[in-house]
Amino acid sequence: MWINFDDAEPSPGDLAAIEAEWPQIEADLAELDAEIRAIYAADRGGPTELDWRRTRRSAARVTRTATRAARPTADLRPAA
């Protein structure tokens, strides 16, 4: 069976799954951004204390969101 993806719309279930995963996606993107900033700063004299703080906070956020998602009865509402 051929599926034309140009005309396909995400189902309500697909949208709910994306919504449920969004906090983890955001956390991963924030961590990537912090790592990029640290690498960029390394070429310009080294990361500042703020760069290190961003990296630590983003890593902690990834851990928190992964822990929430791994709970058997994970709350699917967005984290505040």
UniProtKB/TrEMBL annotation:
One Pfam family, short name: DUF6284
Residue ranges, annotated region (Disordered): 55-80
Organism: Phytohabitans maris
Higher taxonomy: Bacteria, Bacillati, Actinomycetota, Actinomycetes, Micromonosporales
Designated name of the protein: DUF6284 family protein
InterPro entries: DUF6284
Organism superkingdom: Bacteria
Biased composition annotated in UniProt, kind: Low complexity: 60-80
